[in-house]
């Protein structure tokens, strides 16, 4: 008999297991659509033609949706506690195949964010509470607060999720806590012993785990790649504000023991708390983990961003800072933020606003090397067009930024605000050109490359100089665009 639409979370868990292929992925087929009560159109509106082989991307999206649902419906009960590892591996391998030859492919993190929206539609159709932690149960013996996932909040500053009346009183109390009110703990020299709370937020590349320390401060943990550490270190060297990052060594047993103990304590919570427990176990086992600066702001999307951008705090300095951030993104081909040099939808969640640490702060950036010679030449031509607009007046490149800003925040940028962004972008490019002309930029990049390679012990591709070579090429394009008559 064919599969029918799932009517409960338990039904959905069984159906997802039945439609999973090779215990690692899902295909966008009729049976998958049926059990999830979805239509082909739910996927077609997400996958764009310019991404490449459409069938491959649709299967990637289907797998990302199933992965998101699996966390919510306790798929571990059907596929085992380690079900997520082969799924992540399949997604990463398939994504690598899908983006071959693409100059500015969509990031996997963006695809998983889109998948989370589709997954929420499925869960809403099932009815009943959508909380991750539900059901009666005693609080854990050790007072770890393992709170629910927060897929609708910013990765760098979670707001307090709602709670269900059936949850344990201790959990309800913790759920009402607004994490944005906690201070940021220093990421250097952290004391991991006896953390007092955890909050897991789903997202790309494994999500983010917020850790509240005994001191009262909060740090963020995230799976880390060499390209991310390289971009963060370069942003610091070039005076662009991004969230601080420290790579945590594999032998940092204090952290890993704390995460493991938290997962053990959390087993006393019932219901769908398994998602948070699995997250804690996973983070304790990641080989490369980074501590990120905790920011108390919000992403450049939705009503909070709208209110902030039309308020008194949104002065010219804010737009100037956004311009510098966009200039940096162009330098490293970080296409997952504001789409100045790329024809995509951008991802404005990676711009943090309103933090006490700064008006505009970039998060989740990475250098994306373009290794194909012709592709790199084409990209450099686009970068020169961007800088030409920055000098001569806004054109189609800055018009796209205006459109995306309006779509995400409801704010229509004024000519003065766009001009401030242009000035910030041009100022950043001029600083890079000065370093490049003086012969010092190569040394800056080489130093960062050496630091990253040493931190990752030469593994995970950290000794690859592709990032250095691309950034040098783009810096030369900056130089050519501005020329001797630069401001």
How would you describe this structure to a colleague?
The chain is an alpha+beta fold and 487 residues long. The chain folds into 3 domains: 9-126, no CATH class; 146-293, 2-Layer Sandwich (Phosphatidylinositol 3-kinase Catalytic Subunit, Chain A, domain 4); 298-482, Phosphatidylinositol 3-/4-kinase, catalytic domain (Phosphatidylinositol 3-kinase Catalytic Subunit, Chain A, Domain 5, Orthogonal Bundle), CATH 1.10.1070. The chain is 49% helix and 8% strand. It has 18 helices and 9 strands. It has helices at 9-19, 30-36, 40-44, 54-72, 76-79, 84-98, 108-126, 169-175, 226-237, 253-266, 274-285, 302-309, 316-332, 373-392, 396-409, 415-437, 441-455, 466-482; strands at residues 146-147, 197-201, 208-212, 218-223, 245-248, 289-293, 298-299, 351-355, 358-362. A 6-stranded mixed beta sheet has the order 1-2-3-4-6-5, with helices on both faces. A 3-stranded antiparallel beta sheet has the order 7-8-9. β1, α8 (169-175) and β2 (197-201) form a beta-alpha-beta unit. It is globular, with a radius of gyration of 23 Å. The protein starts with 8 loop residues before the first helix and ends in a 5-residue tail after the last helix. The model is unreliable at 128-149, 160-176 and 268-272 (pLDDT under 50).
Query: Which sequence of strands runs across the widest sheet?
Result: 1-2-3-4-6-5
**Global geometry:** globular
Tell me, rounded to a whole number, the average pLDDT: 82
* Beta fraction: 5-15%
CATH topology of the largest domain: Phosphatidylinositol 3-kinase Catalytic Subunit, Chain A, Domain 5
Task: Give the end-to-end Cα distance, rounded to a whole number of Å.
Answer: 72 Å
The CATH superfamily name of the largest domain is Phosphatidylinositol 3-/4-kinase, catalytic domain
Helix content estimate: 40-55%
Largest sheet at a glance?
6 strands, mixed
The CATH architecture of the largest domain can be named as Orthogonal Bundle
Oligomer: single chain
Rounded radius of gyration (Å) = 23 Å
Low-confidence stretches: 128-149, 160-176, 268-272
Protein name: Actin-fragmin kinase catalytic domain-containing protein
Biased composition (Basic and acidic residues): 164-176
Pfam family, one: Act-Frag_cataly
Region (Disordered): 149-176
């Amino acid at each position: 008999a064919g599969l029918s639409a799932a009517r409960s979370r338990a039904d959905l868990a069984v159906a997802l297991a039945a439609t999973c292929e090779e215990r690692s992925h899902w295909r966008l087929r009729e049976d998958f659509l049926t059990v999830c009560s979805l239509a082909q159109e739910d996927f077609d509106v997400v996958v764009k033609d310019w991404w490449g082989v459409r069938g491959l991307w649709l299967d990637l999206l289907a797998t990302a949706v199933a992965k998101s649902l699996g966390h919510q419906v306790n798929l571990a009960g059907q596929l085992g506690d380690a079900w997520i590892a082969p799924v992540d591996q399949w997604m990463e391998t398939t994504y690598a195949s899908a983006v071959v030859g693409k100059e500015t492919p969509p990031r996997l993190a963006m695809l998983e964010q889109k998948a989370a929206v589709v997954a929420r539609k499925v869960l809403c159709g099932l009815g009943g509470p959508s909380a991750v932690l539900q059901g009666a149960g005693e609080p854990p013996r050790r007072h770890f607060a393992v709170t629910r996932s927060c897929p609708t909040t910013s990765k760098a500053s979670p707001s307090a999720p709602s709670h269900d009346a059936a949850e344990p009183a201790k959990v309800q109390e913790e759920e009402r806590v607004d994490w944005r009110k906690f201070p940021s703990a220093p990421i250097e020299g952290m004391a991991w012993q006896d953390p007092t709370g955890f909050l897991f937020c789903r997202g790309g590349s494994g999500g983010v785990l917020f850790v509240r320390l005994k001191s009262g401060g909060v740090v963020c943990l995230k799976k880390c790649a060499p390209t991310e550490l390289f971009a963060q270190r370069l942003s610091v060297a070039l005076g662009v504000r991004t969230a601080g990052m420290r790579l945590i060594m594999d032998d940092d047993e204090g952290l890993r023991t704390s995460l493991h103990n938290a997962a053990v304590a959390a087993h006393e919570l019932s219901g769908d708390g398994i998602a948070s427990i699995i997250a804690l176990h996973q983070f304790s086992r990641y080989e490369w983990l980074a501590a990120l600066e905790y920011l108390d702001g919000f992403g450049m999307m939705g009503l909070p961003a709208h209110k902030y951008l039309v308020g008194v705090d949104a002065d010219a300095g804010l737009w100037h800072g956004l311009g510098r951030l966009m200039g940096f993104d162009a330098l490293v081909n970080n296409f997952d933020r504001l789409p100045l040099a790329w024809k995509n939808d951008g991802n404005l969640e990676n711009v943090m606003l309103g933090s006490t640490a700064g008006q505009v702060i970039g998060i989740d950036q990475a250098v994306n090397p373009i290794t194909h010679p012709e592709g790199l030449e084409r990209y450099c031509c686009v970068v020169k067009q961007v800088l030409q607009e920055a000098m001569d007046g806004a054109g189609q490149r800055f018009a796209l930024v205006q459109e995306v800003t309006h779509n995400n925040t409801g704010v229509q940028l004024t000519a003065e605000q766009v001009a401030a962004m242009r000035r910030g972008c041009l100022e950043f490019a001029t600083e890079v050109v000065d370093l490049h002309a003086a012969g010092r930029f190569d040394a800056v990049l080489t130093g960062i490359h050496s630091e990253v390679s040493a931190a990752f012990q030469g593994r995970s591709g950290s000794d690859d100089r592709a990032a250095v070579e691309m950034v040098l090429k783009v810096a030369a394009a900056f130089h050519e665009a501005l020329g001797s008559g630069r401001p």
